[in-house]
Design a protein that fits this description.
about 325 residues; Rossmann fold; six-stranded parallel beta sheet; about 45% helix; multifunctional enzyme
Length: about 325
């Protein structure tokens, strides 16, 4: 079947990653993209997911639905993070297999790797050490998702692939002041400080932790690129069908450097202060992206350009908040 003719289900199409995948697919000419809102389909309800797959019979699935958040959210809601993600993954993967779906893409996270993994982190680092405690429940759920796909491949001969992105940001991000990831949280904090003419902005931790960031539309293009690779070529790069693939830029910076860059993009003129009483998280998280580059893909959006686009999206989101209020 021609790629453009396939019926493609994008789980989590309203989220940052899912919406970027839909944009990319539509831009490439795909006509039949299947979506459901949470109100229309609760992915934690196995019976509902089973009925959905029986009725829609998609050819491909992008599993981008997940409960996500930053350090504060992961620390505050660990039970919800592990339960929701395990249930969604289990239901979608199992019911996709039951309905005959041969191709599925599972989107994970770089937090699957040990806290003190050798940097940059290769795919082989999985399960070689202890996880970062602040997001361990979420990480365990994502590891289970990888192993779920591997197990169905081994037992049933499916072609279920997994990509592990680094920290993502961009249009559709969550800008909540407490429950968002570091980059969108900074955008809100520096924007509000600019409006209030605040003398200083305080960022969590020492500022020394190093992080890698990937623009979400680059992540979408990587996911689709990996999904569309012929099985033989995918096996050639991963050795076996049981391997996952890192997706990132291959470059990182300190949180302090990130704060300075966000401050400059936003136009804030005050001081930046650190709060060492708050957790840094893992000291460094940089992915080895040599495998996906060998597959013919690499990121194209620079960090500054991506942050500028994200700031425009944040400002648009503020108008939505005002309308709701």
């Amino acid at each position: 079947m021609n790629e453009l003719q396939k019926r493609i289900y994008v789980a989590g199409h309203r989220g940052m990653v899912g919406s970027a995948i839909v944009r990319n697919l539509q831009g490439s000419g795909h006509k039949t993209i299947i979506t459901r809102t949470h109100d229309e389909l609760d992915l934690t309800d196995q019976a509902s997911v089973r009925r959905f797959f029986a009725e829609e019979r998609p050819d491909q699935v992008y599993l981008a639905a997940a409960r996500v958040g930053g350090i504060h959210a992961n620390n505050t809601y660990p039970a919800e993070f592990i339960y929701s993600n395990l249930m969604v993954q289990t239901n979608v993967v199992h019911e996709a297999w039951r309905s005959g779906v041969r191709q599925l893409m599972f989107l994970g996270s770089s937090c699957i790797y040990p806290k003190l993994a050798e940097q940059p982190m290769t795919e082989a680092a999985l399960l070689t050490g202890k996880l970062e405690p602040t997001n361990e429940p979420y990480a365990i759920a994502k590891i289970a998702g990888i192993k779920l796909c591997e197990s169905y491949n081994r037992q049933y001969g499916t072609d279920y692939r997994s990509v592990m992105p680094t920290n993502l940001y961009g249009p559709g991000d969550n800008y909540h002041p407490q429950n968002s990831h570091v980059l969108p949280a900074m955008l809100r904090r520096f924007h509000e400080a600019k409006l209030a003419d605040a003398p200083a902005v305080v960022i969590w931790g020492t500022g020394s932790a190093r992080r890698e960031f990937l623009y979400v539309d680059d992540m979408a293009s990587a996911s689709i690129h990996v999904m569309q690779l012929p099985a033989e070529e995918y096996r050639r790069h991963t050795q076996v069908m049981e391997s996952h693939v890192n997706v990132g830029t291959g470059e990182d910076l300190t949180i302090a450097e990130l704060a300075a860059l966000v401050s400059d993009v936003v136009g804030y003129k005050g001081r930046i202060q650190t709060d060492p009483s708050k957790p840094d998280g893992a000291p460094r998280k940089l992915l080895d992206v040599s495998k996906i580059r060998q597959m013919g893909w690499q990121a194209t959006t620079s960090l500054r350009a991506g942050i500028e686009l994200a700031y425009l999206d944040f400002e648009r989101s503020l108008h939505g908040e005002e309308a709701i209020a």
